Amino acid sequence: MSKAYDIIVIGGGHNGLTAAITLARENKKVLVLEKRSMLGGIAAGEEFHPGYSTTGLLHDTSGVRNRVIKEFTLEKFGLKTKQGKPTVGLLSKQGDCLPLSNDVEATAAAISKFSAKDAAGYRDYMAFISAIRPFMKNLLDEQPPDLSALGTKQLWGLLKKGLALKRLGKKTMMEFLKVAPMSVADFLNEKFETDFIKAGIAAPALYGSFTGPWSSYTTLNLLMLECLAGEHIIGGPQALIAALEEAAKNAGVDIKTNAPADKIVLDAGRKVSGVKLADGETFTAPVVASSCTPQVTFYDLLQPNQISYALEHAVKHYRSRGTTAKVSLAVNKAVTFNGVGGLEFYRTGNSFDDMERAFDPAKYRQSSAEPLLDIHVPTVSKPNLAPAGHSVISILVHFAPFNLKDGWHDETKKKLFDSVMKTLESYSPGIASSVVGSEVLSPADLESRYSLTNGHIYHGEEAVDQIITRPFPLCAQYATPVSGLYLCGSGSHPGGGITCMPGYLGAQTILKNC
Amino acid sequence: MKWKEWAGYYAVCSYETLHDSEYYAFRNSAGLLDVSPLFKYRVTGPDAAAFLSRIMVRNIEKLAVGRVSYCCWCDDYGKVVDDGTVMRRGEQEFFVTSADPCYSWFSRFLRGYRVELTDISDQVAGLALQGPTSRDILKQICDADLDALKYFATCKARVNEFEIYISRTGYTGDLGYELWVKNEHALKLWDAIMAAGRNYDIRPAGLDALDVTRVEAGLILKDVDYFNALHALIDERKSSPYEISLGWTVDLERAPFNGQAALQTEKEHGSKWAIVGLDINWPELEELYYKRGLPPVLSNHAWRSSIPIYTAKDKRIQAGYATSGTWSPILKKNIALATVQKQYDKIGMELQFEVTVEHVRHTVSATVCKTQFYNPERKTSTPKFPKS
Questions:
Q1: Are A108 and A117 in contact, with CB atoms under 8 Å apart?
Q2: I need a surface site. Which of A35, A120, A247, B97 has the fewest CB within 10 A?
Q3: Residue among B105, B111, B114 with most chain A CBs within 10 A, to mutate
């Protein structure tokens, strides 16, 4: 028995659900197909050891746009947010922990203990971020400009972006144009002198990229993340999914879990007509929105002869070299790093040279000997994720290349785990003896569990040529050359991370076209 | 003996000063031509037919084992990349010939298909044995049932100690065969055919004679009558199959293939160009020369230069251009293949063909006709299966 829908959304992660809600709120009949037994994808909480859970593969929820929260009235569905980014402890090898908080003055004061110059540099840096924020929001929170056909409409869109840039004022505009293509190391070296502070501020720019701190354009990545961070979600990604699920049901979205899509079905006219599941069940709809990666969408969900050579070529050359692994630890005590406890987030980095050294092996298909750690202790705000008094440490490990020379298997995963534990031990002595359970997810595991091509956490690198015209010019406006097929995942503008924006803007395009 | 470059090889234009005797061998006895410079590919595997169907404008899945298909292949926009033959040697084995190197193009579509694509251009030699006595000659040296081998059929055969593949195909528009043999046996095959053909007036033949026959047969030539879309410098030089008289090879109603959407649109909305045959008025041409006190002058070779074609009504309006032509010795006609705007492609239409006599441009009338100027019954007939 097949039921007809207006739109089928493939993938029940934050972007899939956002797209579904956006569409259903405009009275479309929407079905969400999720291959796993639970919704959420990389934002789903996972029990990795009996009694111990994480709040999602990714940690950072500060990119979720207020616009989506407000429009969907997610507070009504239980979502609680807190203004600004959560405080992160920047760790140094010398035993320091600098709390980088949402309060610029408090942070500057904390920095001044290390360097007065850096305290001034931080104020200067944050002032620059505030100044360029309107332009970055204009660039990343709206439909991407259509560069493929420069008609009056498209030129008008570009002009508006140009005006937003000009409105920054000459000084800020020139500064932005100067620094955006720079390496994050060069950029921060101009403002700061303390190594671990520079490295800690820079670190997020490298997550999910195939770059080290000395790679060009990494400043642009940093600026995007800084500018778009608004409020963060209490309870982590998992809490966002719970609210989205309620909002979806409230909007009348049909959700089917354990429903892995096998193929997008096209009719004789090569137009989308539905989705066939792995078990053969078929759902019909004239429109399919895929929140899967571009490779899964075009290579796995379509037959090879259903895409043009131009598309085949574009997908083939879309870069998504996964370099992130996940280590989750169940710990039988409250944890501290460099003597500081009670924070939910910590970051290592230490120095640009250490970060570059962590990235280098990835180029040669090897893992970092001393990886860069993005540490989340979700039990700080949500103690019930572990037994009383115990902690969960959820770590995104950079860099662990998807195409590891020796392949990903128990032995190489053990090696990765050991390098993580060794690094962790230097910040939290004795932690190894407190670990009662653990899980290591290699990029290969991320690919099989979450359908992330090459295990790339952002559905593709956020390189300068893969933003704005994301994933590639042929599909940069969410519509694809396959009639009726749209993209609405992290492989589309404005990119990866937990933001809900690709889903939201993709759905807007569908509403405009259908 | 004259030579020219063909796909990196030296190929014979004519074995004698003039190619006339070789031409007459093709038409009256048999000519043997080395076609080894053609590019050759082997495609094998469970998805071989599906893979080729995705690339070719014809549905290769429908091609029966032992049959050959002449077809072309297009880019995303329905513009022809190249043309050639596809032979189905087995359920999962195909042999493809092309004029241009196409490995790079074909290999772009391998993803998702269980196939192996091999460039066997330099492992396999090709000999074209063409002409009315070709069947009788070939019978002398191999064990194939040639009386049963239909037009555009292929089979394996044994010649002495080695094997060859025979396909009843050719580029002369006559009864003929193309023989495919491993390099190491090529010379032995040549010698065997020449020895067997002695009593049948066989001659080695070159490309000049072939060129005359192919124009008579209305067979188009890449880089002369059309251009590979991947090499065209400007879009105007690209052609769809419909525009180069290969519309009949396009099978639209099937699983998606390269260029399908564009070809469907073109079929619905019409094409811009068409290739037609032109029968150029001889008395008018003779008259032009006569007026200048000259006998009519014709090239003794087939020509391949672009000649403007005008409308009959107004010689200032260009209807198209001829791309190749020849004096047809067997038809006693001055013929050409021309690309004309679609509205001028109706059989019997009068057009004007430009000629230059004593440095002055003139036109003579030319009648639009089928591209197949010469089409003998023996080309397609099969002794064992006479037409009822």
A1: no
A2: A120
A3: B111
